[in-house]
Every structure is written in C-alpha cells, then in structure tokens.
Amino acid sequence: PLFRGHAQPSPGSSTDDPTWSNSGKFGKGLSFDGGDYVTMGDVNAFDGLTDMSYSFWAKKTNTASTGYVLSKSYLNFAFLIQGDDTNAVAYFANGSGSYTAVALTHTGTTTTNWNHYTVTKNGNTVSYYVNGVRKYSATASIPTTLPSNSLAFVIGADSQGGVNSFFPGLI
Length: 171
Hints:
Elements: E1 13-15, E2 19-24, E3 27-33, E4 37-39, E5 51-60, E6 67-71, E7 77-81, E8 87-93, E9 99-105, E10 115-122, E11 125-130, E12 133-139, E13 154-155, E14 168-170
Antiparallel strand pairs: 1-4, 2-3, 3-14, 4-13, 5-10, 5-14, 6-7, 6-13, 7-8, 8-9, 10-11, 11-12
C-alpha cells in the first residue's frame, strides 16, 4: 500500500500515472510531473482529530510552481510548498466552512534538494520543522478539533473543488 499509519486505509490509486523513481531519498520515491496525484479515498480517521503530525521527504523539480504535497482539502488540513524557496502553507479548517492558512517560512532551504518536512498540530498550536530544525511555532486561529468531510485524502495535489494545484517533484 502507498500509505500506512494510524488510519490504515486501503491501498491508494494513482491518477495520471505518477511513477516510482529510483531517485527517492531512501530507495524509491513517487515522481509527480505536476499533473499527477495519488488518492486514498475518504480517510475517516483524519476527521475529528485534535492533535496530529505529518512528515515526509520531498524534493521539488520546478521552483516556479506551487503545489500541494498532501491534502484532505483545506477544509480539513493540507500542506502546500510555494513556488519559491522560502515559504510553505499549512491549511486547517476553521470550523465555519472556511480555513485558516498558517504561513510557514523556511528561509535558507533549497526546495530542489531533498528536505524532511514535519508539521504538528497540538490543540491550536502549529509547529513546523525542516530537516529537524524548528522554523515556526505559534498559536493559530484554528479549532481544537478538525471537522469531518467526505473529500479524498490526496498526495501530490489539493482535493478541494476537484483535484488541482499539483506538486512537481518527488515525495
């Protein structure tokens, strides 16, 4: 399966053929050309979370492009690496059918190199780490509990309003 963890969903399916590459950080990695994604379906274990963390290795192949690495829609949670080498955004639902975007700065990071990203949510405190170094930690205007939705958990794109904002690179 493409995803294992607390949620333990069924194996994912890919769309528009992301490919397995031998150029992963440790062995193989999924290569996204800016139009690919993997969908895990509606992973209900993400609904109603109070505390969470997610981490991954990623390497962009196009710094001019902005793309989502993972998403259960920004109406639950999502992570976006912007087109430059200094910013990322974590999205969390704010409970009113909208979202709060938490701007995360990773100045000094070259996103075309392999980097390890971690985002933690503990209540309404968000912390962000790049390669084990904390780059951001603050209280954000997000609810303590993330709401439920029936949208798919997607790797390599955003799942809100149809799949879009594709990630160009390796995960």
